[in-house]
Amino acid sequence: MDMFMDGGWVAAQSGQVMPVTDPTSGAVIDTVPMGQAADAGRAIASAARAFENWKRVPMAERVRLVKACAQAMRDQAPRIGAALNRELGRPLPGCIAEIASSANLLDIYAEEGLRLYATQALGSAPGERIVVTRDPVGVVVAITPFNYPITLLMFKLGAALIAGCPVVTKPSEDTPLSTLLLAELFHATGLPAGLFNVVTGARELGEALVAHPVPRKIAFTGSVPAGKAIAAAAAGTMKRVTLELGGHSAAIVCADADLDKAAEAITRHGFANSGQFCYRVNRLYVERPVYEALLDRLATRARKLTLAPAGGEGDLGPLVNARIFATSEQQIADARARGARILAGGDRATGPGYDGGCYMPPTLIADATPEMLVMREETFGPVIGIAPVDSPAEGLRLANDSRFGLAGFVFTRDLALGMALCEGFEAGSVWLNDIQRASHHVPFGGMKESGLGREKGRYGVVSYLEYKTLYLSWEPPL
After folding, report:
1. Is the dihedral of CA 256, 257, 263, 269 positive or negative?
2. pLDDT-derived band of residue 246, with 50, 70 and 90 as boundaries?
3. pTM of the complete model
């Protein structure tokens, strides 16, 4: 499969390609171009040409086209979901669900576009008016990760298009196929050429996109080190940045909590997508009176989750590659060496259907201590560290003792205590007594080293707009 730019398929100028593999077996399923700086320049030039027309398109027409693209995603969810299943390894139902959910976000962005207004000060003198309006920032570079490649792309693409901005996207090397298919689908649906360009490649390509002088914004989801490098490079041309840099999210379970509900929510959320997402429960602080009772409930639920072998079905797929898998192995080994208990999982799954992929069963690490890696560093795998605490206040202190601040979770029947803990969390989103999917209508993003800016809802759209103040004067005829 080639890159998609200016409404068509394009090979890399160098002719080089890189493989895309099936994480369940390691087999090569396709190749994509190994794009470099010249390819970045071609895609950006295409977007810049498209911008001149798109920024003048009336909002109602932008909304119509974006909503048509959303419906096309729903119609083609099985096809694009199947491609995502092959390149990511997540069970097929979850991949199809990601496409449908992403289409819903497109619709929400479209609706937010209809609610954008300019403002006019009422105190102007006769023959004078001051109008505050907003212009699209310009060409946007979106760099997206492997774990939810379509959802995290829509965070950026949907908002940018409604705001009037074209996008050049670089998907993860692990999961480029679904993004390429989506670009083709949007173009076939009627999105003008050059508004959604997809270039594929590795670090050199990403650096060229960020350093190029034409784009005015970089939207990135990924690791903290990569985000810091992007922010530093973007400063050279004063580009805007939106950075969602992952998390090491903590949950606090108080002694009065509904333990069955807490265990169900934590297991469902902590191990979804084999732990490969940013705001999952990574570490858990539990009041001592209910510590062992909660451990039992968590272990029972974790052991019931099944792994889907190559060609088979199950609850969880493999980790996407050996590099991601290594973090889980390292954290488990570190915890064992420091005396932790492994309540479930802990060892790589092997045997027929598993040997070709990086499979780790859901793993619970009990009696974790603050110096253990699992309690200090993001795992991005199906591993949860659990520690006892003597009070909710101690739990909150340990939860906040982190350079990350993406999400937090609290379980207690005491509403006043729950609200105090939620308000005390240093995190961009906090859940109380359950863990629902993050809403598309409200801002999503993190504090501290978990990133800069917010995505989704109207908050996402306005981050692709620049304020402009117009001072108007005329001679009053009356």
Report:
1. negative
2. confident
3. 0.95
How far is it between the farthest Cα atoms of the chain? Answer: 88
The residue assigned the tokens 């002088």 is 213
Task: List the one residue out of 141, 155, 144, 205 whose CA is nearest residue 179.
Answer: 144
Q: Of all helices (H) and strands (E), which one includes residue 52? A: helix 37-54
Helical H segments across 89-202, by residue range: 92-113, 149-163, 177-189
Which tens digit of pLDDT belongs to each residue from 106-156? 999 999 999 999 999 888 889 999 999 999 999 999 999 999 999 999 999
Query: Three-state secondary structure along 299-355?
Result: HHHHHHCCECCCCCCCCECCECCHHHHHHHHHHHHHHHHCCCEEEECCCCCCCCCCC
Contact present, 450 and 425 (Cβ < 8 Å): no
Q: Does domain 3-245+450-470 have CATH number 3.30.365.10?
A: no
Contact 240, 218 (CB under 8 A): yes
C-alpha 410/C-alpha 305 separation (Å) is 24
Q: What is the distance between the alpha carbons of residues 171 and 202, in angstroms, rounded to a whole number?
A: 9
The Cβ of residue 93 has, within 10 Å, a number of other Cβ atoms equal to 11
Catalytic residues: 244, 278
Helix ranges (DSSP H) in 175-258: 177-189, 203-211, 224-234
Which stretches within 216-258 are classed as H helix?
A: 224-234
Query: Identity (one letter) of the amino acid at 401?
Result: D
Domain ranges of the chain: 3-245+450-470, 249-432
Location of structure tokens 């070709």: 356
Task: State both tokens at 66.
Answer: 């974006």
Average pLDDT, the chain: 97
- The residues, any chain, with a CB within 8 Å of residue 295's CB and separated by 6 or more, are 286, 343, 364, 366, 386
With a cut of 90, say whether residue 478 has pLDDT above it. no
What is the C-alpha separation between 243 and 229, in angstroms, rounded? 11
249-432: CATH, from 3.30.70.20, 3.80.30.20, 3.30.300.30, 3.40.309.10:
3.40.309.10
Bridge partners, residue 404, by sequence: 448
Secondary structure element (H or E) that encloses residue 82, with its range? helix 77-88
The 3-state secondary structure of 369-402, one letter per residue: CCCCHHHCCCCCCCEEEEEEECCHHHHHHHHHCC
| pLDDT for the residue 123 | 84
